[in-house]
What does this fold into?
Amino acid sequence: MRHRLKFLKNKILAMPWRVIEKFQRTRACNNVNFVAEDADWAIRWVGEGIKNGLNNESAGQFSLTTIAHRLNSSVIHFGSQYMWVDWEPHISRTNKAVVSFFHGKPEDGKDSAKHIDQFLYSLPRLERIVASSEIMLRRLDSWGVPKKRSLIC
It folds into this structure.
């Protein structure tokens, strides 16, 4: 039930932005948006570190955000696979999506297994998956994630 309520909340939040998008001209994907939870967690600080490093080289090309549903015609890097699974059905199809996958396996429990199934179902919408370790990269490979889509950082 909690998952269904979260899904409906995200759908309602995204709806006005999908309507606005219909009336906008499409533009090239030249902006990268790193999506992090609205919390003081490690994923947010990873995004801050990338932003600070990249903005020295290419000012304004990278931003940190918590509002994936408002973005269109952008490259969106989701800081966690959990956020990606929550927002994937609601983000604009004009975006190119990248996701970081830090941890998890079906053996971790019923909720984890369900989440991984949802993640694997969403693969067609992903351009790249950034694995946190060699172990995670091998795990993604064993789940059938194409090698050309996954990399390690």
Q: What stands out?
A: The mean pLDDT is 82. The first strand starts at residue 32 and ends at 35.
